[in-house]
Write a structure and sequence with these properties.
206 residues, mainly alpha, three-stranded antiparallel beta sheet, 9 helices
Length: 206
């Protein structure tokens, strides 16, 4: 190795070392700033915990929750904790557990409302009722228009009506008829009505 090549190699080492030293000091500065921020965050968290401990120590444990402070106090008869004659403790507890008439009405009101909602007829039943008024097949659009007219509180989309009709077809409750590009539906008559119609037709031929 010549002296020139050795000097070149030494120069490269020096440049690399200087570059690494600069990068090392830059990273040290970044870490020092990050440590400083973490120290500040640590002090803030310690202050928060200290304030929380002081608040718990100064608060009155006998105070009721805020939601219970505005509630009226129960009378001995309502709470069931009052003095009662001997031998009547069990009925008193049963009476207290049942609550006042207003409380019983409050408990039964949601049930009544739920029953009222469940009485609303299903869309499939309404469509079958409409089909039962006609002997010829009907289009889904015609059924939807008639449904909106007779039941203004119901507003199903055309797609929902078609899906419901197809579900009834799959269950065998209505029939699907294809006429050119149109799809129509008719009601499947019960077996008893079909037998009666066939008997009537036979009698007329006889």
């Amino acid at each position: 190795m010549t002296s020139q090549s050795a000097a070149t190699l030494r120069s490269r080492y020096v440049e690399q070392a200087a570059s690494d030293l600069e990068e090392n000091r830059r990273r040290q500065q970044e870490l020092a700033e990050k440590i400083k921020m973490l120290k500040q965050e640590e002090g803030l968290l310690v202050d928060i915990l200290t304030l929380a401990e002081r608040y718990e120590a100064s608060s009155d444990p006998s105070r009721l929750p805020e939601q219970a402070q505005g509630e009226p106090a129960l009378t001995p008869e309502e709470s069931g904790s009052g003095t009662v004659p001997a031998g009547t403790g069990a009925p008193a507890r049963r009476t207290a557990s049942r609550g006042t008439p207003a409380a019983r009405a409050g408990r039964t009101a949601p049930r009544t409302a739920a029953k009222g909602k469940s009485r609303q007829p299903l869309l499939g039943d309404l469509l079958r009722d409409l089909l039962g008024q006609y002997e010829e097949p009907r289009l889904a659009k015609e059924l939807r228009d008639e449904l909106l007219e007779k039941h203004p509180d119901r507003n199903p989309t055309p797609q929902v009506v078609r899906n419901t009709l197809e579900a009834l077809v799959a269950k065998g409750r209505i029939r699907r008829h294809k006429q050119q590009r149109s799809v129509m539906y008719s009601l499947v008559e019960p077996v008893g009505r079909q037998d009666a119609a066939e008997d009537g037709a036979g009698a007329s031929r006889g």
